[in-house]
Amino acid sequence: MNDLVFKDNFVFGCATAAYQIEGAVNEGGRGKTIWDDFSHTPGKIFNNENGDIACDSYHRYKEDIAILKELGFSAYRFSFAWSRIFPNGVKEINREGVDYYHSLLEELLKNNITPYVTLYHWDLPSALGDWTNRECAYAFRDYAKFCFKEYSSEVKNWITLNEPFCSSIVSHYQGRHAPGHQDLNEAITSAHHLNLAHGLAVQEFRKLNIEGKIGITINTIYPQAASKLKEDVLIADFAKACQTDIFISPIFKGEYPSQIESMLKLKIPIEKDDLNNINQKIDFIGMNYYSESLVKYDENSPFKMKEVNSWQKTTEMGWSIVPKGLLRFLRTLNNDTDNIDIYITENGMACNDILTSDMRVHDTDRIEYFRQHLLYCKKAIEEKIPLKGYFAWSLLDNFEWAYGYSKRFGITYVDYQNNCKRIIKDSGYFLRDVMLSLI
Ligand code: BGC
After folding, report:
1. How many whole angstroms from its chain centre is CA 356?
2. Between 55 and which of 21, 142, 239, 317 could a Cys-Cys bridge form, CB atoms 3.0 to 4.6 Å apart?
3. Which residues, in sequence order, are bridge partners of residue 342?
4. How far does residue 262's CA lie from ligand 1's centre (Å)?
5. Measured from the CB, is residue 287 less than 6 Å from ligand 1?
6. CA distance 134 to 272
C-alpha cells in the first residue's frame, strides 16, 4: 500500500537554523559570528546578501510557532545562536540572549511542540577564530554545559552539531562556507576539533545527569560506485570514509578510518585521550538527506574521485532527486551506528516557487519529493530500522548560505519584498494531511 500512515509516536517536525532565519544580528547583545564576517565579505554570497534580517524570526517567532501549530507539527528543530548566549564564545554570559531562548521555548511548550535544539549550526562566534583553533572545542563544551543546566527543564532533546562535514570540509577545503579557506590540512584539523567538541559536550551532559537525550546530526554522504569495477567500489568507499565516517567512526568506534591519513597523506592532530573523549555513547543520530550521487575512479581528478552524470530530475540546487537513496543511506547508517535511534533531521528541496495573485504557492514538485521520501521512511520502518522521526527542511524560506535568498526550501513562503510576510505553501498543507493520516 502506498499510503503514508505513520504511528502516533512517530515525530513529525520542521527544522531551521539561527543564522538562516533570525536576523536581528545587532540586537539583544548578540556577538558577531564567522557568518556575519563571511557574508559581509564582497563576492562570497550570491548578490552579496547576508543574514542581517533573514526572516526576522527573532521578532516573529510567535508567528512562526503559530504556523507549526496550525499545520499540526509536534516538534521543532532549531538552533541556538551561540553568540547570543556567549557573545565572545566564552566566559561572559549575555542574559538577554539567554532569556530570548527561554521565551521561544516557553512559546513552543505552551503550544505542545517539542523542542529539538541544535547547539551549533555553523555560526561560530568570531572571537574564537575558526575550528582549526583547538580552543573552540573547549569553548563549545562550556557553552553546551551552560545550556544543559540553564534549559534542562524545557529541552529534552539536544543535538550537539549540525553537519560537521560542512563546518570543516566545505568551510576549510572547498571554501564555499565561512571562513572560506581552501586547505585540506585545515579541513581535517577542523573536523577533528568538531568531533572533540561533540564528545566533550556529551560528557558534560552525562555528568549533569539530567533528563533528556543527546545526539548529533550528520549529512551522511554515501556516494554509490558507478560500476562494479573494483577501483570504483574502492573509491566510493574512500568517499564514504572521508566525508561521513570521519565523524561516525570516532564517535562509535573510537577511531578514524585508516584511509584518511593514508590516502590524503596528512596527519590528524589527535592528542592524548581525544579518541576516548569523542567515543561517547549517544542516544540518537540525526541524518540530513537531500540527494545521492555516483562516483568513479579517475586518475586525473582530485583524490582520484569523479562524480558521474545522473539521469534523475534535479532540484533548483541542481541536486538529483533520489528518494530510494534515503533508504540506502538509512540502512548503511543503521549498520554503522549500532542500531541506535535515527531521526531524519532534514529533508526537503529547493523549488522555483511562485506566489500566485490569490496568495498561494502550488509547489507540486516539493509535495512529490516529500511523498516519495516519506514512502521510503515507511519502508525503512518496515525493515525495522529504528527511525523515530522526520523533520522537513525547512519551516521557512531562508538565507541559504552562499546562495543567499535565491533558493527557497520552505514549506512556508517568505515574501522578502513585503516585510517578510509568511504564506503557507501547498507542501505545508500536504504535510499537515500526512500527519492527519489522510494521505
Ligand atoms: C543544512 C541547512 C541547509 C540545507 C540546504 C543542510 O546542509 O543543514 O542549513 O540550508 O542543507 O542546503
Report:
1. 31
2. 21
3. 285, 387
4. 30
5. no
6. 13
Q: Is 439 in contact with 372 (CB distance < 8 Å)?
A: no
Whole-angstrom Cα Rg for the chain: 21
- Residues annotated as catalytic are 163, 346
The residue type of 130 is D
Q: Rounded CA gap, 424 and 355, in Å?
A: 10
Write out pLDDT tens, residues 363-406. 999 999 999 999 999 999 999 999 999 999 999 999 999 999 99
Residue 357, number of CB atoms within 10 A of its CB: 5
Q: What CATH superfamily classification does 11-435 receive? A: Glycosidases (3.20.20.80)
Give me the amino acid identity at 339.
N
Amino acid identity, position 173? Y
Is any ligand 1 atom within 6 A of the Cβ of residue 397? no
CB-CB contact of 369 with 393 (8 Å): no
- Look at strands 294-297 and 224-225 and give their pairing: parallel
Is the CB of residue 178 less than 8 Å from the CB of residue 38? yes
Pairing of strands 213-218, 284-288: parallel
